[in-house]
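In this section we walk through a basic example: taking a raw amino acid sequence and producing a predicted 3D structure, encoded as discrete structure tokens. The instruction is simple. Fold the sequence below.
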Amino acid sequence: QERLEESGGGLVQAGGSLRLSCVGHGPTFSRSAMGWFRQAPGKEREFVAGIIWSGLETNYADSVKGRFTISRDNSRNLLFLQMNSLKPEDTTVYYCAGDMDLPHRDSVPRSKFAYHYWGQGTQVTVSS
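The resulting token sequence is shown next.
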């Protein structure tokens, strides 16, 4: 019933920018908290950024604060992650996540366990 699909990954040089997109297929996108996670090989899936249903509150991992911006367009079921000043350490697979089971929550969940819908992942590679 709910499906998420990321796009926008690619190869960029350090200091460059990428904009990831995630489209939601289903009826609950606009009332669900959404997030971006990343997972490098052999490591845990890591919270990157999150946004509540209305877009009025966001949260970021310390490692990306000031460089990444999460936003959403509920009229189009779209979630974005604008990634600026990219570093080689940002290289990994990025995942779109949705908390469709808890509509209208008023805070950004940072735990991966709060999200039950996931995209397939999109690769981001930042070269030195």
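Looking at the output, two observations stand out. The radius of gyration is 13 Å. The chain has a mean pLDDT of 96. In the next section we compare this with other chains.
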